Amino acid sequence: MARVSVGAGLILLTGIVVVLTCVGCQTTGPVQPAPEVLSFEVTTETLRRPLPGPFVALYRLRVPSTGGLRLSVIADGDRGRMTVSESLGGAVVIAGWDDDGSEVFDLREGCRLQGRRAVAALGLGNLPLGRAVLLLGGRAPALEGDRVRTLGQGNLLEITGDGWWTVAELAQEPSRILALRGEDWEAELDDHTSSVPGSIRFETPSGDWAELELVRLQWEFSGDLPPLPDLPVCGE
Q1: What is the pairing mode between strands 147-151 and 111-113?
Q2: Do 155 and 171 form a contact (C-beta atoms < 8 A)?
């Protein structure tokens, strides 16, 4: 009996030594540093920087009535043009903006749109053109003079401007905007390249929607903007 007890004790002691040795081996390697997480303060700073420069872009535009439209954009500082075209036809809507404001023209009706009809014609929710360009270029749609503040855990950015308001949901690595929420519209952004969204879907409570899919974006533009048409206000 004594021999059996001693043998069992030796086996148990040997097992403990082996386990302790293995544990020691696992902890002798260098400790890996935790991955660095950017603060949302840095993310907000990044998304509020000016655009890198002028750009031209082409998008596929889908709306409830058709999926065969194209949206082209020329943005040069505080001025630019947007054009909605049929895939096998010519332009149906053209818009322009500068420091004095914006204008949207329905080329099928031969007149200038105003108010909500102008916004709906471009499929950009309730997003003014100057703000839309910032969003398409990978920036927060905040203009000079807007009130901007962070909410929640710092991942929400509230932007209040002249008669306009939205909350942007931010993400990190890379710094980008995932969603926008306004009073009567919302937008989901996806497929980013760095901070530039590759797809955007706009929706309204009434069920209207529009989807943009980026085909090409080039950070370069030189030359004159195409002239805007001289047309009367629709309904006059």
Answers
A1: unpaired
A2: yes
Vertex 154: Cα angle to 152 and 156 (nearest 5) = 70
CA 180 to chain centre: 8
Taking 70 as the pLDDT cut, the residues of the chain under it are 1-38
CA distance 196 to 179: 13
For the chain, give every domain's residue range: 41-218
**pLDDT tens digits, residue range 101-117?**
899 999 999 999 987 77
- With residue 131 as reference, give the H or E element that holds it: helix 129-136
> 85 CB contacts (<8 Å, ≥6 apart)?
69, 70, 71, 72, 91, 92
Fold of 41-218: outer membrane lipoprotein receptor (LolB), chain A (2.50.20)
- The pLDDT score that the predictor gives to residue 36 is 56
Secondary structure class of 212 (helix, strand, coil): strand
What are residue 197's phi and psi, to 5 degrees? -75, 140
**108: which 2 tokens?**
């099928």
Can you tell me which residue has the tokens 């082996």? 18
CB–CB of 221/214 below 8 Å?
no
